[in-house]
Amino acid sequence: MKKKRFTPEQISKILKEYDFGKSVQEIMREYGVSKASFYKWRQRYGGMEASDLKRLKQLEDENRRLKQMYTDLALNYAIAKEVIEKKL
Fold it and tell me: Is pTM beyond 0.85 here?
């Protein structure tokens, strides 16, 4: 089963449709979204505009990259420390 990816604009539009009175069942059927996904979006992104969602996604990606960089540097440091200790 192919996993669908929704853009922040699409998520915002879907949540606004719900706010304007569209039922969860109609949204699930129209967009092919599970009930769990919809409620997770609502919990996580409720009240945000599309631009806010886009910025949040960018910050999450940047945070993920920074964590990966830290992990790589920490690993390199541990290896270098181990090599130096063995030489002494």
Answer: no
Q: For residue range 28-87, list pLDDT tens digits in order.
A: 999 999 999 999 988 888 878 878 888 988 999 999 999 999 999 999 999 999 999 887
The number of residues making up the chain comes to 88
Contacts of 6 (CB under 8 A, 6+ apart): 14, 31, 33
Give the helix/strand (H/E) hosting 15: helix 8-19
- Which residues are CB-contacts of 46 (< 8 A; sequence separation ≥ 6)? 15
Helix axis angle for 35-45 and 24-31, nearest 10°, is: 110
